[in-house]
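Hi support team,

I've been running sequence recovery on a batch of backbones for a student project. Most finish fine, but this one hangs at about 90% for roughly twenty minutes before it completes. I'm not sure whether the input is malformed or the queue is just slow. I've pasted the structure tokens below so you can try to reproduce it. Let me know if you need the job ID as well.

Thanks,
M.K.
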């Protein structure tokens, strides 16, 4: 498994924005408020990051 880290420096990009919107869309308004406060604090401290796993499958074609 590979992991992609979207750190504070790279969060301005489209992938970081996409991931954050995806997270926020699954939260209640109250939870989203907590997220925004915590995310802003982490950004100001330079510790904000998002991590997501990449997965893939490798196979071989069976010999006949």
């Amino acid at each position: 498994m590979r992991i992609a880290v979207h750190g504070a420096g790279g969060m301005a990009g489209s992938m970081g924005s996409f991931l954050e919107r995806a997270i926020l869309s699954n939260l209640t308004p109250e939870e989203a408020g907590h997220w925004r406060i915590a995310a802003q604090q982490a950004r100001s401290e330079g510790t904000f990051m998002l991590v997501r796993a990449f997965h893939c499958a490798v196979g071989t074609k069976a010999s006949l």
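--
Follow-up from support: It reproduced on our side and the slowdown came from queue contention, not your input. The CA atoms of residues 4 and 52 lie 6 Å apart. No action needed from you.
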